[in-house]
Amino acid sequence: MNQPRRIETKTCPRCGGSGEYSYCQAYGTRCFKCHGRKVVLTRRGEQANAYLIRLRSRTLAEIRPGMLVFDEPGPFTKGGFKLVLGISELKEVGKFKSGGDTEWTTRYGHDLDLEGMRLGGLNMDTVKRVGHTALGKAETLRLALDFQDRLTKTGSLRKDAGTFPTAEEQLATADTAGWLVEQGAKQ
């Protein structure tokens, strides 16, 4: 029976695949290298995963209300996909002095209004991961695995692999209709 193709991983070298390492009062015995998952990405896997994330991302200029955007988890937020409610017009987000400057510099940016929160001070080139349908997930994973197949063990493009399009070039040439989750539909 054929194994499904996956992003390449290896057994965690720190914990030996147990998911546990030394005791810490805050986190117990969880291994901090693999975060208790027992495996880590290989160098090829890291490059393929970065390619996959870029394929599943869009700039703020491409994001529209009704799409799902991934909010990275932080120390005080859970993170996850949130519905985009709107994007504000360009506005002043702060003033600062840099180094020996005597005059204030004004900083401008956009706000991304999400369900339950707002991300502020973003420019239109800011890249965010967006929600995809099952078709979009399958197709972007296939493209990332094709990219992984052309890499050496060190994560660089093989010499005999020819040229491989960047994630941006792939998105420009692919038929991406039906890839994105819009209007709050489930992924």
Q: Could you give the distance between the termini?
A: 29 Å
The number of strands is 11
**What is the strand content?**
25-35%
| Approximate helicity band | 10-25%
Helix/strand structural class: alpha+beta
Query: Number of helical runs?
Result: 3
The averaged pLDDT comes out at: 86
| Element order: H for helix, E for strand | EEEEHEEEEEEEHH
- Rg, alpha carbons: 20 Å
Low-confidence stretches: none
Global morphology = globular
Structural commentary:
Strand 2 (20-24) and strand 3 form a beta hairpin. This protein has helices at 43-55, 134-149, 167-173; strands at residues 9-11, 20-24, 28-30, 39-41, 57-59, 68-71, 80-87, 91-96, 105-114, 117-122, 127-129. The protein is built from 3 helices and 11 strands; from the N terminus they run E-E-E-E-H-E-E-E-E-E-E-E-H-H. The strands form 4 sheets. Strands 6, 7, 8, 9 and 10 form a 5-stranded antiparallel β-sheet that branches. The chain has a two-stranded antiparallel ribbon with strand order 1-4. The model has no long low-confidence stretch (mean pLDDT 86). The protein is of the alpha+beta class and 187 residues long. Helices cover 19% and strands 29% of the residues. Among the domains are: 8-41, no CATH class; 69-128, no CATH class. Helix 1 crosses helix 3 (167-173).
Quick structural overview:
With 187 residues, this protein is an alpha+beta fold.
Secondary-structure topology with pairs:
Blueprint lengths: L8 E3 L8 E5 L3 E3 L8 E3 L1 H13 L1 E3 L8 E4 L8 E8 L3 E6 L8 E10 L2 E6 L4 E3 L4 H16 L17 H7 L14
Antiparallel strand pairs: 1-4, 2-3, 5-11, 6-7, 7-9, 8-9, 9-10
Helix pairs in contact: 1-2, 1-3
